[in-house]
Structures are given as structure tokens and as C-alpha cells.
Amino acid sequence: MLTILRRNFGLKLLSLALAIAAWAYFHFSAAPGITAHFDEQLTVPLVVTGLRPGFVARYSDKTALVTIDLPRNGADVKSDQVQAVLDLSTHPDPGVFNVPVEIIAPNVQIHSLTPASVTLTLDRLEERTVPVAIDYTGDTHGKVVVESADVNPSVVTIRGTANDLARVNAVRVEIAIPPKSGAIDTMTSPSATDSRAAGIASVDVSPNLVRVRARFVPSTGTGAK
């Protein structure tokens, strides 16, 4: 009998351990008060609260990855039930801040959160009025020249952060010089540009369309009669 028990003793011991583990799993998972749990990952947008009127917050992270603990037999938590919040109510002045991400969710346990905080720039929104300048493109030394030109409205309002408005050198509209004399009457979009005439997309221009009228006549150097 002892010889039989010793034969394949290791396999018998492993089988016994597996049987005990299986019994314990089914016994305790079904027992009252003991609930199996699992992790669920949700990607939720980052939202800002407490932002003062006239300010804007800029940050590169747009979403947060939240891992929550749920009962295996419980109801799923949807992403629209979870909010990842950046509270700026304690930051009244412009600057660069590292703000913790706060999770607002149903009664669930948060296992992990990425990112745990976000570095953002808080800036003041400003506006000012500037005249609209005309940039002529094409052959500016050809057979025609500008006799007259006007923009309506001639002044527009630009809006943006204080840093962006400080970069604005002019607001411009582009008009192509035609190959022969004549007149144009068109609606076109003005754009805010820096000192190198590069557009600044983060600056809003209002109105976004202006009327440009121009008249082109033959150049005096062409010998036209």
C-alpha cells in the first residue's frame, strides 16, 4: 500500500492542490458577502471647471485613462458616467500650473489614473481693433498697376490670448494682380499675421469676411495709349 501511495506522488499532490483551489473558488464566489471583482478601463475627456470669465486654459492632454474596480455581476459603468476634471478655481491669475486630475464617478473604486496631473497654461483673453492692410500678389511689376482699392470694413477686431495678440503685426487680405486692367469686387478672409507675415491661427478675426474692391489700370511704362 505504501508503495502505491508513493508512486507518482508529485502528480497526486498537484491534483489535490488543484481540486482544493477549484472547490475554494466556486465555494467562496457563490458565498453571500463575497463578490468576484474585475477591472474596467475607460477613456474619458478632460474637462475644466472654475475657469474665470475672460481666461483660457491650454493643455496637451485631452483624455484620461481610468481603471476602476467593478463587481463581476454588477452593472457596467459607461464613460459618460465618469468625469476627469481640472479644477482651476484656485488659480485666479495667468501662469503655468500643474493641476491634479479629479475623478467624479459613481460609487466605484479607482485603481489607477493616467495622467494623475496635467500641466497647463492659463492666459487672459483680450481683444483690440486694427486696420486691414492689402497684400498684392503675383506680378507686381507687370503691365497693370493699382489705381484705387478699399476694404469694407476697413477695421476689424482681433481676439486671443495676451501672448498671441502681442505677436500680431498686421491683419491682411491678399489680392492677386490681374494680367490686364479691370476691376475686382470680392469677399475675402482677413488673417492676423506676425512680423514675418506668417498667419497666427490662434487669433480670431471678426468679421471673418471683408469686401475688397480694387481697380487696375495699364502701367505708364507699357506705352499704352
Q: Over all CA atoms, what is the radius of gyration?
A: 35 Å
Contiguous runs where pLDDT drops below 50 for at least 5 residues: none
Count of DSSP E strands?
14
Counting helices, strands and paired strands, the structural category is mainly beta
Task: Classify the helix fraction into a percent range.
Answer: 10-25%
User: Largest beta sheet, briefly?
Assistant: 11 strands, mixed
CATH class of the largest domain: Mainly Beta
- Fourth-tier CATH superfamily name of the largest domain: YbbR-like domain
Number of helices: 3
The shape is elongated
Following the backbone from N to C, one meets helices and strands in this order, namely HHEEEEEEEEEHEEEEE
Named CATH architecture of the largest domain: Beta Complex
Strand content: over 45%
Mean pLDDT comes to 83
Q: How many domains would you count in the coordinates?
A: 2
* End-to-end C-alpha gap: 129 Å
Per the CATH scheme, the topology name of the largest domain is RNA Polymerase Alpha Subunit, Chain A, domain 2
